[in-house]
């Protein structure tokens, strides 16, 4: 066997003390075989667990960029002051999405704000928040590709079954708790922004007015959202010493929405589409609405925990998830939990028996 010569110009390293020159030769090299890249295959990975599988699939979906030209509009499914929503088909895969077209050629500052808030939504990944897949700038219009909720919104729904209402409220609170943990305030919770699909999943939608609260605690006091579902201290800045807590404001809006589902109508003494002065008086000057006496005590207490005039007395989304109306899946099933609730926060005003 011929010795394999070292490459030209290579100098052997100096021998170390104690090395056996007959058994260890640092100047020996072996040629590497030529690799055919066309035959390369990825090595199999170990099977992922349930949580990592979900994370991996979500990550893969996020990495799959969708070409705008591959989307085909099917029909219009909704419209409002901010834009129009279409059902679209992604032709290569056949998947259905919702495409929200935001009206108008916006000024640069407005475009930056819209793009910033869409970027917030793109980073959101929760089963009770509508997923944002992509964003396009098409002919000067901003178009947002969203998860399709085939059941539409809960606008106009009447839900008197407390078990059903408890499950619905739990899903909304789960999404809201997730958003609040990420320092995101929605600021426009209302029935038309709560969507449902054919699997009875309820999800929070329309982040057109959401924003992130930085650690510096931005006062978050710009007037956006629907006044009918706004908290008193947000409408009237003279209340609560001019301080506005966006998280507590979301809880008020949730309470109004849940009570509206139960009653089948806007729960204040005026219509929600009434003139601004009448709505302001009803929300800011009168006592907060209450669930009717025919409802269970758990439900009446739950609504009262949401609709406190003092925002510091409203329970948070995380605390409300522990409320007996939620944890007991409806009224009359969790007396012990009801007693433990009083340790979470000073109790609301007494309810009629």
Automatic annotation (TrEMBL):
Residues 1-62 are annotated as: Disordered. ATP binds at residue 100. Residues 51-62 have a biased composition (Low complexity). The keyword Phosphoprotein applies. Its EC number is 2.7.12.2. GO terms for cellular component: cytoplasm. GO terms for molecular function: ATP binding; MAP kinase kinase activity; protein serine/threonine kinase activity. Residues 71-326 form the Protein kinase domain. It comes from the Eukaryota. One of its GO terms (biological process) is response to stress. This is mitogen-activated protein kinase kinase. It comes from Prunus armeniaca (Apricot).
